[in-house]
Amino acid sequence: MKKIANFFSNSEHTIKTARKHLRRKLSIPANIDLNCYLNQI
């Protein structure tokens, strides 16, 4: 169970950092919900 919990917290962290990088790369205004943006790609 511990491994699973670690996996989920790690993937959450990865998603957050990936979003930060995406924001920088695409220079999306911070107020735009990235989920909506990513769904449109």
Question: What is this structure's SSE topology?
Answer:
Layout: H1 2-26, H2 34-40
How do the helices and strands follow one another from N- to C-terminus?
A: HH
- Structural class, please? mainly alpha
Low-pLDDT residue intervals, each spanning 5 or more residues: none
- Gap between N and C termini, in Å? 35 Å
As a whole number of angstroms, the C-alpha radius of gyration is 13 Å
Count of discrete alpha- or pi-helical segments spanning 4 or more residues? 2
Largest sheet: none
Number of self-contained structural domains: 1
Mean pLDDT, all residues: 72
Proportion in helices: over 70%
Q: Please indicate the percent range of residues in DSSP E strands (runs of 2 or more).
A: under 5%
Structural notes for this entry:
The protein is mostly helical. The chain has one domain. Helix content is 78%, strand content 0%. It is built from 2 helices and no strands. It has helices at residues 2-26, 34-40. The chain is elongated.
What's a quick, concise take on this entry?
It is built from two helices and no strands. By secondary structure, the chain is mostly helical.
Task: Please supply descriptive tags for the structure shown above.
single chain, 41 residues, mainly alpha, 2 helices
